[in-house]
Automatic annotation (TrEMBL), chain A:
Name this polypeptide is given: cytochrome-c oxidase
Organism whose genome encodes this protein: Microvirga lotononidis
Gene Ontology terms describing biological process: electron transport coupled proton transport; oxidative phosphorylation; respiratory electron transport chain
Record NCBIfam families: CtaD_CoxA
Taxonomic classification: Bacteria, Pseudomonadati, Pseudomonadota, Alphaproteobacteria, Hyphomicrobiales
Record field: catalytic activity: 4 Fe(II)-[cytochrome c] + O2 + 8 H(+)(in) = 4 Fe(III)-[cytochrome c] + 2 H2O + 4 H(+)(out)
TrEMBL record, chain B:
Species whose genome carries this gene: Microvirga lotononidis
Residues that span the membrane, as ranges: 42-63, 75-97
Top-rank lineage group of the source organism: Bacteria
Protein name in UniProt: Uncharacterized protein
Keywords for the protein's UniProt record, in alphabetical order: Membrane, Transmembrane, Transmembrane helix
Length: 826, 106
């Protein structure tokens, strides 16, 4: 088969459906990645326009441009859009598009999950934009501190848009992260061992793990605050045993790692682009990996440095101040590795390099002011002033937007297949950089002069007038620069001349395919011998196109892809991916019913949507798998691999493992919140502790034994080619008993009596939910066994259900134990 | 997966210990600690003991990751995991040193 026929066959297999339906049903990483990027840029434009409205308002004293009501919505939505609808989706889009190419594979691990995540992002973001257009947008600050954001401070619907819209959007971040982790660990070109991973993949592995562990506290906080607003469960109301500081803990448990979640992908771009621009290889690859992992974990230990002014004891402040200064060390290691890379190379001053230099200057300045505010006495002086606003923008714009623009111009030829011809980009660069520093360098000064954040006007004679006027002029210059970047990119993408395949002479695999890349990315999958396969073998792209790698024969008509062993990169199994489907968009739409139902207080819609989601989930899972044992198949070069449906831990098991990691962090955060209220909140202890009695604990213990034993019995029977029925029945009975044990907690407490009762309701509800999910999965497994989808070799699905059952039992024992423990002595 | 764990576990243990000591400080400074019959000196002793235990755990990780039994076969993973174990040990010593240097509940 020649290269052209292979291309046509593979495009038929992997490409989207023709016409507009193709965009709605595609699950391909190229389409989803580009859709993410386009929508994120759209939100950036909206967020940027809001920023200009802010600067217009503050350009002159006592401006009548906006009233306080509108201003509050504008500055809140600017932060919300930039943090949640622009920054994270932008790098998700970049990763969804680029990561499979860099790893030398054809798609991400769970293509339908990618599409589902995108549609959740699109629908959730649309909710927020609709609120903005309708004048009922969130107005309590992007961090939504109660009591300002509770029904006491925000009785309208505005805050609900934040709580529900953002939680909806975060489903996409969790989905994308689970599959990024599984993709980096399992889906790579053969031979790509951990030490040969493209550095960007290491960063994204760290970032995805951070999202899985960083976002659940915020989702929990949003859930609790929405429950308080909707049903009067007083988690944050001091008079009923709650504490508004709990929100700050949950928010910043997410919020500080979030800064690194945004910075690390940008650092990944720098570490990828910089060596190419410097015509050398990255200095200190291992050190950079260690620094990225250190940053990823250390950044979780510094959330309280956003709360220095809340009255925390000195020792607590000292813990977090020490951790905050510590985090500068791995950041410094990275910066010095980059400087070393420049030192040993021969840097060429192309446009991506200019943006990298802008990043260096800006991010280092932002990092240094970060160390300043990590020191408690200084923070007490500058807290809630424009110094913090300026620091935040130096870190986020310097540390994220500038590197992403470097990445944009670096990968533009890969996206478009064209050579950048028009030179607007350099003008845009200077306008943005000068405008940015003109704005935010000055605002540091305003902050030091005492200008408070979030004020809707400045008073004449305050001493801040000239600074703000100049900062506003700088802001508009920057906005013109960004507009020019957009025009430059669009014009070059549309009308510039065709370019070479690898114009930068880079070594990574995303340049080993035609540009723009075909739907299947690689016509065949190469074997990799180093971190820069294209430097080892410049003819590799041609040999890939000729089908000389693995899976070069598209004769099966299926979406075939390889998995590898995590450490060594040895080929492990053959996966057949699902095809395009409307299921992701339909499921995202039905999931939206949960949030819209809560938003418009049509509570009947919530359980209805839950049933719909469960039904669609079953449909989704049912379409996978096989009714027959399949022989191992040749994948090229004499290699024969078993199908992934017949390995003990299929990709779905790994996906479940990482989703459960996020779930576990959510649960851990819930227990943390319970312990926090118990130790710190005023108006504790509650009027009465819940006495466990005998029935509940017996149901829980008996249920745990039955569920754990039953699913293992079923698993063992399946591996012997026997019927799993008895085991599944026992497991189902056990899960029902666990659910019943949790219901005893619900029936014996009143959800709105006290924060203690409300917490027990959430803990018990969580247990009921997980027992139900595991129960549904058990029933599903029984139906699959009856339908012939399981056998001694096809035990992967049983392993997935076992994982979820074990988790449900663990959280039931821990959660119910925590609920009953305080009542035991009484 | 074992190699990923070798890389991630020491710092994750630091995070767990750091959070636990911070939680312990919250408990020591809460009315519940006094209700349970303990005083502030007992609280500081408990936090110091937790700090020392966390440091010993990190030393154990460091030694284990050097030992033939637990070290990775990949030189790259061995190097990265040992570096991160040192980072975790330093982080444990540095970030928890306030348990013996500052006032506990002011």
């Amino acid at each position: 088969m020649n290269a052209l026929r292979r291309h046509r066959a593979l495009e038929r297999i992997w490409g989207p459906r023709p016409g507009w339906r193709g965009k709605l049903t595609t699950v391909n990483n190229n389409d989803i990645g580009l859709m993410f990027l386009a929508l994120a840029v759209t939100y950036f434009v909206i967020g940027g326009i809001l920023a200009m409205l802010i600067r217009a308002q503050l350009a002159t004293p006592r401006s009548a441009f906006m009233g306080p009501d509108v201003y509050n919505q504008v500055f809140t939505m600017h932060g919300v859009i930039m943090m949640f609808l622009f920054a994270i989706p932008l790098f998700e889009g970049l990763t969804v598009y680029l990561l499979p190419k860099m790893l030398g594979t054809r798609d991400l691990a769970f293509p339908r999950l990618s599409a589902f995540g995108f549609w959740c992002y699109a629908f959730g973001g649309a909710l927020l934009i609709l609120a903005l257009l309708a004048g009922i947008a969130p107005d309590g600050g992007w961090f939504m501190y109660p009591p300002l954001s509770s029904t006491l401070g925000s009785p309208g619907i505005n805050a609900d848009f934040w709580l529900l819209g953002i939680t909806f959007v975060e489903i996409s971040a969790i989905s994308a992260s689970a599959e990024i982790v599984v993709t980096v660990l399992l889906y790579r070109a053969p031979g790509m061992s951990l030490d040969r991973l493209p550095i960007f993949a290491w960063y994204m592995l760290v970032v995805a793990m951070m999202i899985l562990t960083g976002f659940p506290p915020l989702i929990l906080g949003s859930t609790l605050l929405e429950l308080e607003r909707a049903f009067g469960m007083p988690f944050f109301q001091a008079d009923a045993g709650g504490d508004s500081i709990l929100w700050q803990h949950l928010f910043w448990l997410f919020g500080h790692p979030e800064v690194y979640i945004i910075f690390l992908p940008a650092a990944g771009v720098i570490s990828t682009v910089l060596p190419v621009m410097a015509r050398t290889t990255l200095l200190g690859y291992g050190w950079i990996v260690a620094a990225a992992v250190s940053l990823g974990i250390l950044s979780f230990g510094i959330w309280v440095h956003h709360m220095y002014a809340t009255g925390i004891p000195h020792m607590g402040l000292a813990f977090f101040s020490a951790a905050s200064t510590l985090v500068a060390v791995p950041t410094g290691v990275q910066v010095f590795a980059w400087i070393g890379t420049l030192w040993k190379g021969r840097p060429e001053m192309h446009l991506p390099m200019l943006w990298i230099l802008a990043f260096f200057a800006t991010f280092v300045m932002g990092g240094l002011t970060g160390v300043m505010v990590a020191v408690v006495p200084f923070d007490w002086q500058s807290h809630d002033t424009y110094f913090i606003v300026a620091h935040l923008h130096y870190v986020l714009v310097g540390g994220f937007v500038f590197p992403m623009l470097a990445g944009l111009y670096y990968w533009l030829p890969n996206f478009t297949g064209r050579r950048r011809y028009f030179k607007l980009g350099k003008t845009a660069f200077w306008l943005v950089v000068v405008g940015f520093h003109g704005t935010f360098l000055l605002l540091h000064w305003a902050g030091l002069l005492g200008m408070r954040r979030r004020i809707d006007h400045i008073e004449p004679g305050s001493g801040w007038e000239l600074i703000n006027l100049l900062a506003s002029i700088g802001g508009f210059v920057m906005a013109i620069g960004f507009a020019l970047v957009l025009i430059d990119v669009v014009v070059n993408a549309v009308v510039a001349v065709r370019g070479r395949r690898n114009p930068w002479q880079a070594g990574t695999l995303e340049w080993a395919m035609p540009a723009p890349s075909p739907s299947y990315n690689l016509a065949s999958i190469p074997k990799v011998h180093s971190r820069n396969p294209l430097h080892d073998d410049p003819d590799l792209p041609v040999r890939i196109a000729r089908g000389e790698g693995y899976l070069g024969d598209p004769g099966s008509g299926l979406r075939e892809i390889l998995t590898v062993e995590i450490a060594s990169g040895r080929p492990n199994s053959l996966v057949i991916f699902p095809t395009n489907s409307a299921l992701p968009i339909v499921m995202a739409f039905v999931t939206g019913g949960l949030f819209v139902g809560m938003l418009i207080k049509a509570y009947w819609l919530v359980p209805l949507s839950l049933v719909g989601v469960a039904a669609l989930g079953i449909w989704w899972a049912w379409s996978l798998g096989s009714r027959e044992d399949q022989d191992s198949r040749p994948v090229g070069h004499g290699l024969v691999l078993p199908p992934a449906t017949e390995v003990e831990r299929p990709p779905g098991w790994w996906g479940s493992l990482f989703l459960l990691l996020a779930d576990g962090v959510f649960f851990g955060s819930l227990l943390f919140g319970y312990a926090f209220l118990w130790t710190v909140a005023p108006n504790w202890p509650p009027p009465a502790w819940l006495e466990p009695g005998l029935r509940g604990p017996l149901l829980a213990l008996g249920g745990a034994v039955l569920a754990l034993g039953g699913i293992r019995l079923a698993d063992r029977a399946l591996r012997r080619d026997g019927g799993p029925w008895l085991g599944l029945l026992l497991s189902l009975a056990g899960l029902s008993a666990l659910g019943a044990a949790a219901v005893t907690v619900l029936t014996r407490t009143s959800h709105d009596a006290h924060a203690y009762d409300a917490t027990l309701w959430v803990v018990a509800g969580y247990v009921v939910f997980h027992a139900t999910v595991a129960g549904l999965m058990t029933v599903f497994l029984a139906l699959r066994a009856a339908g012939g989808y399981l056998s001694a070799r096809r035990v992967g699905e049983a392993r997935v259900v076992r994982l979820w059952t074990d988790y449900a039992v663990a959280v039931a024992l821990l959660g119910l134990g925590a609920a009953w423990l305080p009542g035991v002595p009484t | 997966m074992t190699d990923i764990l070798r890389i991630a576990v020491p710092l994750t243990a630091w995070l767990a210990a750091f959070s636990a000591v911070y939680g312990l400080q919250g408990l020591v400074c809460s009315p519940r600690w006094a209700e349970a019959g303990f005083d502030l000196a007992a609280g500081r002793a408990a936090m110091t003991a937790a700090w020392i235990a966390a440091a010993i755990l990190q030393v154990a990780f460091l030694l284990a990751l050097r030992s033939p039994r637990f070290a990775s076969r990949s030189a790259f993973v061995r190097g990265v995991s040992l570096t991160l174990a040192v980072v975790a040990l330093v982080a444990t010593l540095w970030t928890l040193v306030p348990v013996v240097t500052t006032s506990a509940c002011l």
